[in-house]
Amino acid sequence: MYFSKDLYEHGIFNNETIKDISDDYMFVKEHSNAKEKDDFDIEI
User: Fold this and answer.
1) pTM for this structure?
2) What angle do CA 6, 12, 15 make, to 5 degrees?
3) CB atoms closer than 10 angstroms to residue 19
4) 41, 39, 5: which is closest to 22 by C-alpha?
5) Hey, which of 8, 28, 32, 40 has its CA 20 to 30 A from 17?
6) Looking at residue 30, what is its pLDDT?
7) In angstroms, what CA-CA distances link 27 with 9, 22, 24, 33?
8) pLDDT in tens, 1-44
9) Any idea of the CA torsion for 30, 36, 38, 43, to the nearest 10 degrees?
């Protein structure tokens, strides 16, 4: 995310691109814990 912000500040990424990257980053951050918890398949 920090690298992407640097690219934005130097004019390499436009507003739409940096918003998409930020949205993707937040989505992964919010859903990474759920995947770890739901990843187990237990049979009794």
Assistant:
1) 0.55
2) 85
3) 12
4) 5
5) 32
6) 81
7) 23, 9, 5, 11
8) 788 888 889 999 899 998 998 898 888 888 776 555 555 566 66
9) 180
The identity of residue 15, as a single letter, is: N
Please report, for residues 9, 35, 39, 40, 42, the alpha-carbon distance to residue 29 in angstroms, rounded to integers and kept in the order given: 23, 11, 16, 20, 26
- How big is the chain, counted in residues? 44
What tokens appear for 8 in the block? 């934005």
11: tokens are: 């004019």
Residue for token digits 């990843």? 39
